[in-house]
Amino acid sequence: MTEPLLEMKGISKAFAGVRVLKEVSFTLAPGEVHALMGENGAGKSTLIKILGGIYAKDEGRIWVDGRERTIRSPREATQLGIAIIHQELPVVPQLTVMENMFLGREFTYKWRSIRWNRMREESQKYLSQLGVRIDPDQKVGELSVGQQQMVEIAKVLSLQAKVLVLDEPTAALTNREIESLFEVVESLKRHGVGMIYISHRMEEVFRISDRMTVLRDGTFVGTRETGSTDMDQLVQMMVGREIRERFPRRSLRMGGERLQVEGMTRKEKVSDISFTIRGGEILGLAGLMGAGRTEVADLLFGVERLDAGRVSIDGWPVTIRRPIDAIRAGIAYVTENRKEQGLVLSRSVKENLSLPNLGALTSFGILRRGVEKRMTEAQVKQLSVRAADSDQEVGTLSGGNQQKVVIGKWLAARPKVLILDEPTRGVDIGAKAEIYRLMNRLAEEGMAILLISSDLPEVLEMSDRVLVMHEGRISGVFDRDEATQEKVMIAASGGGKLAD
Amino acid sequence: MQTEIKTENLKPGRVQQIGPLVGLGLIILALSLISREFLSITNIFNVLRQISINALLAFGMTFVILTGGIDLSVGSILALSGALSAGMLAGGMDPWLAVLAGLAAGTVMGAGNGVLVAKGKVAPFIATLATMTIFRGLTLVYTEGRPISYDSDTFAMLGKGYFFEIPIPVIWMLVSFVIVYLILKNTPFGRHVYALGGNEEAALLSGVRTDRVKIRVYAVSGLFAALSGIILTARLNSAQPTAGTTYELDAIAAVVLGGTSLAGGKGWVTGTLIGAMIIGVLDNGLNLLNVSSFYQQVVKGAVILLAVLLDRSRKK
Amino acid sequence: MQTEIKTENLKPGRVQQIGPLVGLGLIILALSLISREFLSITNIFNVLRQISINALLAFGMTFVILTGGIDLSVGSILALSGALSAGMLAGGMDPWLAVLAGLAAGTVMGAGNGVLVAKGKVAPFIATLATMTIFRGLTLVYTEGRPISYDSDTFAMLGKGYFFEIPIPVIWMLVSFVIVYLILKNTPFGRHVYALGGNEEAALLSGVRTDRVKIRVYAVSGLFAALSGIILTARLNSAQPTAGTTYELDAIAAVVLGGTSLAGGKGWVTGTLIGAMIIGVLDNGLNLLNVSSFYQQVVKGAVILLAVLLDRSRKK
Amino acid sequence: GCSTESALEQEEKKPDQDVTIGLSISTLNNPFFVTLRDEAKKTAEKEGVELIVADAQNDTAKQINDVEDLMEKNVDLLLINPTDSKAVSTAVESANQSDIPVITIDREAEGGKVVSHIASDNVKGGEMAGEFILNEIGGEGNLVELQGIAGTSAARDRGKGFHEAVDGKKDVKVVASQPAGFDRAEGLKVMENILQSHSDIQAVFAHNDEMALGALQAIRSAGKDILVVGFDATDDAVEAVNKGEMGATIAQKPGEIGKIAVRVAAEAAQGEKVKEFYPVQLELITEK
Ligand SMILES: Nc1ncnc2c1ncn2[C@@H]1O[C@H](COP(=O)(O)OP(=O)(O)OP(=O)(O)O)[C@@H](O)[C@H]1O
Ligand SMILES: Nc1ncnc2c1ncn2[C@@H]1O[C@H](COP(=O)(O)OP(=O)(O)OP(=O)(O)O)[C@@H](O)[C@H]1O
Ligand SMILES: O[C@@H]1[C@H](O)[C@H](O)CO[C@H]1O
Ligand SMILES: [Mg+2]
Ligand SMILES: [Mg+2]
């Protein structure tokens, strides 16, 4: 192999005495896609943040293009030709797409005035390379998570970096965008760009990477050529044990209709959505980015108000104006956006887990903190959240572990209807299986589950029926045995029409 | 840099707790070395009594700031509640009823702030800036710009009395402290306050009735302002129309010196008590040292800055 | 679809722009109906001249608030810069040099605030509260608590003069407005100010030197405070040690009334100008109508609240 | 310049300096009280007594604290310039309890035992201003009153005296009474606004000189000729009076108050008998 683009040796890092990286080494060759694998909390993002100048390493050395470097700030990393798409999308919602893309390196005239047209053209160029139609003048805060992700990708493309790090770039994307991303990755490979690719989607990793390096508990486990490894071996390296089945089965015991939605409409967003979910049933909701799936969940939960339509639970009509109404009616909602909607990042794991359940933990107005502690600690164990203890601040957990906390907070409430919007985004393979098993158990106990997901295999494997949305309307309904990737995709792009 | 910020986060409790205390300790040490009178028993009670008004305001302010809000109107609520109580006393009302009426009035004014913030969606700074002006104006209208005197030893005792050598205002302060501490730590309301300040949307989606929490939080602040107003009116034998002017600044400073973040979601009332002590001890110490009043301001500002900076640098 | 997004995108902008303007319009309409003198040419220039001080402070404050910070020290910087200029004039310095020295002093004080916030990581509220006290103390020390008079027509002209019928302070205000507008809209610095307020971490990760931006932003605020101080000193023929006390509140109110969010990242300086006008017109109108001093505060607070509430409800 | 008494100076009390007097002053944010304090300090040096000054910054509650702090310093006697006559009684009473004699200056205390009081009368001063104005304008015309900070006793008393003098006169009308916060910039602004709606004004009475000087600027910019009368006789105001720009100012002689206060205090502290009241005459300062 040629001289490595990037070499990291013996990297160690501890946070407040807890070591999260222990002498990790990693090399990256030009034109290579090198997957960095590991369970949630294995230390992948931390390694990347050290490379990006966000964290200072405690030990170890880094060479870029054969020269040893110390990277003290994101600015220095960029100057060395290192560009990173971070896991938790650092965007400025109030600024436009193009302003975000060129933040800190705006095009200007000699008199320091911004060249808006140039900025617009440049951003347009990179966005269309990705095949997305996003207006450079739109505020980023108005974009969906998926669109924001595409903007981030366009942004790093425009940096023309030699080393490109993609930390879970596809977590929020649907197939179509993933395909265009891969095309770009291929073309960058041909131009000799080295890429570090982090993802929990196994298929992707096998498809796109040349080599894989696995971290476990912050230690280096090994590096393998992708061609000479298989999924089982990889999982074995990551988890230290085998995962028997990726999509566990469950026994079907359907009850009566638990959730009934009729003619749900919200002006300019969704129209005339009707469906039912029975107790014990998992209903999948698929669709392309921006199809309106999240909107349906928001409406059900009272985050937004209905313009028309009716919702009943167990045959009783319910009026939902605010989230508290939905919670009282027995609905729980795991939102897609954990940072903004799911978690209070500055508070502890314990406080986040108990937040929706405080009523049950209170007697005579006093919080029973002992009970709370026991309950949350049991949940931490059940969901295998990797945290020092339940007093750790949620914001300092790894992405996947944060996701587990978002799910965990609804479990104690024993809802009748559970809405899961992208529940396994960024979750590692072992934990995914854990979440699926949990879903199965809850369904078996009679819960009605609405599963919104952009991960098609997940929707197809886990759901009893699949509902497909296109531009705010239902464009297809498939039973478990008739649902296939193709059919769902066609319906999602507005091709297939509903039978009845 | 980022790391430092985040590492702190891991053990938030401990570091946060020690910071302000160290600052207070250093100031006390310094003052007791240069002033003979400073550490006398009478002066210690003297300081405690002096800080009680600010501490009570700051307790209420702690709730508000924890939700990410701010309450600039406390000084005016203090004045108006005090004036109303004094007015009722002067009109011959039973002292305890007058106290209750004053407290109720303050709570209602505070709840008004809360409604503006929660339902009117007015930024807390601007809402309470406006009501600060309005309540002050109403105080002037009600008092016709004159102090209101009354004649009630029972009432005066609330500000001037002693309970086994301990000044009554100090008792008010300590009892309030314990209650606030327990509420923040051990009740759903306390948790909701933190959650709201940490991430309002997430709190709402977790079923927290955020509007209600906001209204209550400002009402609590109003209640404490009224309590301070009553104590002050009792201490001064009269209600002053200009009482409490700019007190909001000292109250906010106490909260922030105590380590509570103005962004909301993080902090604790013990810090607030320490913060109020830092300010009170400084005022007292500078007086004891007979520092000229012009220089007092320079020194006070500088010491507060040093305390905060010290806290920051020690954390690194 | 793209067109749809665009129209939607335009809307929030427009609403934001119209809100404060509608409020201002209604107040002007009401006042011109009840007071004959209100809409006279001389009164219009009179009002414009009166608001210039607050507007200039608020322009600087706009930068600070856009980054999510706050600057409570502007009133004190105003006083100290004005006093320094007057002192130098009284000592026989060339008027223009005295102006430059005053502006430089204000900028340095502001930059000091910036360093505390950026490097010292002190919360802006507490940092500038402390320097507010310190700078006020230094002003009192420097002036010995007495006004400083000087004798320079050139200097006095900066506050009292006219340029083709337009009062010079109004010229200062309008020129500053245009410059601030362009800086915020069309320069990388302006964009970085918004980015910092919107998401500091994102700005840092994009390579924005956030510390530098912060220091500059407070320096700009200090510069504007000094400019206001010089104009005020020129208008009053002397520098007052207590000049500018509580001016920070009006400046912040102007910014927020103008639609700029105290959380940072959102807002515009045109709104600030309108906000300053709302406050100025109100003060003027209440004087013209000879509203009794006690009620003035009630009315002013209530109108400000109404303006904000109106804006909110219209947006729904 | 003004100085800080450093702690060390405090410690090494000169043996003959066995009398310590505490002075609690309402505010030093006003030249009037700065002059009072300066004169008091000078006198203290001459008399060989130690003077400790605390500034209440116009806050009634802070003043109580200040007095308590001064008592901690074991002062032999307290000079109190009350921020408010009623509120200060608490402080006076607690001094009484500790047997520390109290002398009030400039404003009275409405409770507790006071050894002596040194002041001039604000109500009287307002009256003098009103009478001077009536005289100058020939008993006919429109008047403006610029009020001090609402709720302060100085504003209250001066306004009261002024109205007692001018109200009810047939051809005299107070066309505007507006607050301007004892502040020069406010005085300027408020006067500018009043001039917008009243073109026919003969005289202005401002509750202090700072506001009067601000109003004077507004009047001059507007090219009007209006009689301005202030209160306090600060250096700037006296100069303006002498230049013929201001009509008059009521001198309360703050320096005199400070001087007498310390002298009387020194006597009282040494157990000598002092009078109950030392009036400091008000003086109407007009162009020389
Ligand atoms: N700022 C921090 N303070 C304390 N602990 C931290 C901090 N950042 C990360 N950690 C801890 O370091 C470990 C590694 O986290 P990291 O984010 O690198 O994991 P990851 O491999 O990227 O996981 P995921 O796949 O879930 O994103 C986790 O246990 C996490 O809790
Ligand atoms: N123009 C916009 N302005 C503000 N928010 C928007 C806009 N467009 C979409 N959103 C928000 O983005 C989120 C996602 O939108 P939607 O429900 O339409 O997509 P989805 O089908 O869930 O797709 P995704 O996979 O992108 O989440 C919703 O919360 C929606 O309100
Ligand atoms: O006598 C003083 C001065 O006149 C001052 O201007 C205001 O307060 C009064 O008590
Ligand atoms: Mg990660
Ligand atoms: Mg979605």
TrEMBL record, chain A:
It is a peripheral membrane protein. One of its GO terms (cellular component) is plasma membrane. It holds the Pfam family ABC_tran. Keywords: ATP-binding, Cell membrane, Membrane, Nucleotide-binding, Repeat, Sugar transport, Translocase, Transport. It is found in: Cell inner membrane; Cell membrane. The keyword Nucleotide-binding applies. Residues 6-242, 252-496 form the ABC transporter domain. GO terms for biological process: monosaccharide transmembrane transport. SUPFAM superfamilies: P-loop containing nucleoside triphosphate hydrolases. One of its GO terms (molecular function) is ATP hydrolysis activity. It comes from the Bacteria. This is D-xylose ABC transporter ATP-binding protein.
TrEMBL record, chains B, C:
CDD domains: TM_PBP1_transp_AraH_like. Its main location: membrane. It is found in: Cell membrane. The chain crosses the membrane at residues 18-39, 51-84, 96-118, 125-142, 162-184, 215-234. Pfam families: BPD_transp_2 (PF02653). It is a multi-pass membrane protein. GO terms for molecular function: transmembrane transporter activity. InterPro entries: ABC_transp_permease (IPR001851). PANTHER family: ABC TRANSPORTER PERMEASE PROTEIN YPHD-RELATED-RELATED, RIBOSE IMPORT PERMEASE PROTEIN RBSC. This is Ribose ABC transporter permease.
